[in-house]
Design a protein that fits this description.
By secondary structure, the chain is α+β, with helices and mostly antiparallel strands. The chain is built from eleven helices and eleven strands. It has four domains: 2-69, Arc Repressor Mutant, subunit A, CATH 1.10.10; 72-119; 132-226, SH3 type barrels; 229-310, Alpha-Beta Plaits (2-Layer Sandwich), CATH 3.30.70. α2 (21-28) crosses α3, α4 (74-88) runs antiparallel to α5 (94-106) and α4 crosses α6 (112-119). The longest helix is centred in the last third of the chain and has 19 residues, at 293-311. The radius of gyration is 25 Å and the shape is globular. The chain has a five-stranded antiparallel β-sheet. Strands 9-10-8-11 form a four-stranded antiparallel β-sheet. The chain has a two-stranded antiparallel ribbon with strand order 1-2. It has helices at 2-16, 21-28, 32-44, 74-88, 94-106, 112-119, 132-148, 224-227, 244-251, 274-281, 293-311, and strands at residues 49-52, 58-61, 152-157, 163-176, 179-186, 191-196, 200-205, 233-239, 257-258, 264-270, 287-291. It comes from Paenibacillus xylanivorans. GO terms for molecular function: DNA-binding transcription factor activity. This is Transcriptional regulator.
């Protein structure tokens, strides 16, 4: 709907400052001419839209303009409550629970039944199967550090097993693939680093304070290095039919293609490290690395070492 697009344009301009007309057109999948008509409509409605000329120009709003809080619709509130409830499945927070109650109370009683239906259409359950208490303690300490602008210290075990002591300025908690990560400025490395919470132990609040550094969260800076093509290795994996469903869960049904021999082929790309070797070995004997040959050889070497471990008597 045009009204929804107009409101969305205003929100984008508030959040991003200046935006190119072409970027708005691409975002809403309309022509640039349509965007300029929308801008004219907003101006006629009294919204102070400003067009800036030059290389750094674009479309923006007069400085200080804000939307009235009443612009939120019942569906907007339902979406917010759904998102908050989903996050709460992994990380309980009293303030967040109270916020959900406040938002629910704003809805008129006559619309309450529809509101409850909208907030129950789907839920994302991020809860873990194991060690929820230890995770909650870490999350609470990290949130306390973020709220009080206080550094946190901990011992960190890398994917290779190396343990180091770190002091960091906690900026952002990130939930990816059912795992929590801390995106923080590391004092020892003098740069932002990503830390997996399950690898952190002895988490404590450190002395002193810090100032938040500017980061653009919309760009997901923690994913930039991992996502670069140079950091990924293309793999061709062949799966047995009996674990086809597991391959589909990981890679999607479009990426699990049957071959002429009754197996299923997936072509994927991941960074090459110990996590990748463990990931492949986790499929057991029902997967075979076809390419590249050096990863195939590494998986074979690890598998032979596993066989040797089980030939010897158990360690006492």
């Amino acid at each position: 709907m045009k009204l929804d697009r107009l409101l969305a344009i205003v929100v984008l301009l508030i959040n991003r400052g200046r935006v190119q007309a072409k970027d708005l057109a691409d975002t809403f999948e309309v022509s640039i001419r349509t965007i300029y008509r929308d801008i004219d409509t907003l101006g006629q409605a009294g919204i102070p839209v400003v067009t800036y000329q030059g290389a750094s120009g674009g479309i923006g709003l007069a400085e200080g303009y804000r939307l009235d809080r009443n612009v939120l619709t019942d569906k907007d509130l339902a979406s917010i409550v759904t998102a908050l409830r989903s996050v709460s499945t992994s990380h309980t927070n009293v303030a967040r629970d109270l916020l959900m109650e406040k938002l629910s109370s704003i809805v008129p009683e006559a619309k309450n039944e529809d509101f409850q239906a909208n907030t129950s259409r789907f839920i994302v359950d991020y809860s873990m199967w194991t060690h929820p208490e230890a995770l909650q303690i870490k999350l609470q300490l990290i949130e306390q550090g973020m709220d009080q602008l206080q550094p946190i210290s901990f011992t960190y075990c890398s994917a290779e097993g190396t343990q180091t002591h770190r002091t960091t300025d906690p900026h952002t908690l990130v939930l990816k693939k059912h795992s929590w990560y801390l995106y923080a400025f590391c004092h020892e490395r003098n740069e932002f680093r990503m830390f997996k919470l399950v690898r952190m132990r002895d988490v404590t609040l450190a002395q002193g304070s810090f100032e938040r550094k500017p980061i653009n969260l919309q760009d997901r800076p923690w994913q930039q290095d991992w996502a670069t093509p140079d950091n990924k290795v293309p793999l061709t994996l062949r799966f047995h039919e009996r674990i086809r469903h597991i391959a589909v869960e990981w890679f999607g049904i479009e990426s699990v293609i049957p071959d002429d021999e009754g197996y299923f082929i997936s072509q994927v790309a991941f960074p090459e490290d110990n996590w990748l070797y463990g990931f492949i070995l986790g499929f057991g004997a029902d997967v075979e690395v076809l390419e590249p040959l050096h990863i195939r050889e590494e998986i074979r070497r690890i598998a032979e070492q596993i066989v040797q471990n089980y030939k010897a008597p158990p360690l006492t």
